[in-house]
Specification:
Length: 85
């Protein structure tokens, strides 16, 4: 028996919110959860996989502003940055 789409979406939305809050935080304006102490700035290029291609993405209205993304872009040798408008 297939479940109605709206039932599945309602059930999943509660799980998605719990996962988001647990990983980042309840708001986009502060960092908490498991990412609260995440910092890789002191790691070596080998640890960071400097030979791997990395794609940074941001949207026009993201809370992570372009100056922050610019710093990351300059720090990663194999990066491409794309802004969704």
């Amino acid at each position: 028996m297939a479940l109605p789409f709206d039932f599945c979406m309602r059930a999943a939305s509660g799980m998605i919110i719990k996962m988001y809050v647990g990983i980042q935080n309840a708001t986009d304006f502060t960092i908490g959860g498991v990412l609260g102490d995440f910092n890789v700035t002191a790691r070596s290029e080998q640890e960071l996989g400097a030979d791997l291609p990395i794609l940074l993405t941001m949207g026009k209205y993201d809370t992570m502003r372009p100056p922050i993304v610019d710093v990351m872009e300059r720090a990663i040798p194999t990066v491409e940055c794309v802004t969704a408008r």
